[in-house]
Amino acid sequence: MSATSGPTQTTTQTAPPTNPVGKVAAASLIGTTIEFYDFYVYATAAVLVFPALFFPSDNDTAATLASLATFAIAFVARPVGSVFFGHFGDRVGRKTTLVAALLVMGISTVLIGVLPTHASAGNLAPALLCVLRFGQGFGLGGEWGGAALLATENAPPHRRALYGMFPQLGAPFGFVLANTLFILLATQMDDATFLSWGWRVPFLLSALLVVLGLWIRLSLAETPVFAKALAEERAVRVPVAETFRRSGKVVVLGAFSVMLTYTLFYLTTTWSLSYGTKTLGYSRQQFLLMLCVAVLFMAAATPLSGWLSDRFGRRPVLASAMVGGAVVGLLTGPLLGSGQTSLVMVWLCAGLFFMGLVFGPIGAYLPELFPTNVRYTGASLAFNSGSILGASLAPYTAVQLASALGVGWVGYYLAGTAVVSLVSLALLRETRTASLD
Where in the cell is it found (predicted)? Predict the structure, then answer.
């Protein structure tokens, strides 16, 4: 194309097609629901099933730690997925990249459901599990950023946080779906049957959810903001290089600002499930049901935080939620450590409520920090690098701290991450009135 043909062409083009609100909400919500369902299925199995089937040991704690170490692999893979899918998302388009990321995540999850165990394949079994776990994280590394951009780049300027919370709602929805299925299987099967083949069912059912997600997403048009940038030839050759050249500091601060999000969630879900069943003496069905009730507080807080962020700004809502997360951390010993069901529930509900408050605005806040031509890469990298800092070793570290120093130290660890996120947030700008063009 000649230097003069671009402007002439763009003046004759019709406006990019817009996507209806309902379709945007469904596409951003269904995708992350599926992705987080897949992720939580693995998280639950990593505590309940994988220690015995893939990492057999005479020491239960050692087996659990080995299983949780594979849980961390996906968080290392997520920034890699962010760079890969972000490259195409910023050069080719949000829609196509989102479909590809969903396929990678879904296929990896289904294949976990047909893996041989250590008893039949020896050390090959955990090796294959690690490869597929990497695939899960690689796909999710491209999923979240695309879903967040799908929502925010289709939103009216004064409703971006409310739209941006739709992909965030996929987290509690996927969690409830995954854990409800595990509860049903566990109550309908004895332990031997569940360990033999019942645990595979949630992984295999992921195939049906992926088909549904693909059907919804393939009906979308490209976001108007990106379509305009593409028509004006604003795409860059290497988005990741441009991201670090122009916004490297923002990527780093953004990653630390979401550190609490991951630590809070995976301590109140994955680690607490291990602690509750192995130390406090709850049955897995009972504790999973408690978590399903508690995550409803997260589901309620997420849209609330989106509405508040559009009204008062992203940073005030995020800062308030981070302070709340720190308080939950300091109360871990007295509440969760008590072992009393009522106090344990208060800790779980409070933790997941503040998780929803800190999680909701991020769907708009991180994309708003980056220009259109590197927004997919920048937002994805910040969000998923935060997973390494806040979640990759959180369950593993918590098991070690609780075993060596007591459960109260897990809370101090949580409060410390809240302080780090709060300081990072203070160094970032407010984006409520920022333009996405």
Answer: Cell membrane
Q: What is the CATH number of the domain that holds 213?
A: 1.20.1250.20
On whether residue 172 sits in a domain, the answer given is yes
Amino acid at site 32: T
Whole-number Cα distances in Å, 307 to 247, 303, 316, 356, 364: 27, 6, 12, 12, 12
- Above 70 in pLDDT, residue 4? no
Which residue type occupies 434? A
Alpha helices in 337-406 (DSSP H): 341-359, 362-368, 375-390, 394-404
Short-list 423, 418, 377, 378, CA closest to 394:
418
Predicted confidence at residue 337, as pLDDT, reads: 95
Encoded amino acid at 392, one letter? S
Domain that holds residue 385: 20-238+247-426
Quick check: 2 pLDDT over 70? no
| Residue recorded with tokens 């997941």 | 352
Its pTM stands at: 0.86
Average pLDDT over residues 104-118: 92
Report the domain count for the chain. 1
Given a cut of 80, whether residue 12 has pLDDT beyond it is: no
Residue 357 covered by a domain: yes
pLDDT of residue 370: 95
CA distance 102 to 168: 16
Which residue, among 96, 148, 223, 222, has the nearest Cα to 381 in the 3D structure? 148
User: If you write DSSP's letter for every residue of 55-81 in order, what string do you get?
Assistant: S--S-HHHHHHHHHHHHHHHHHHHHHH
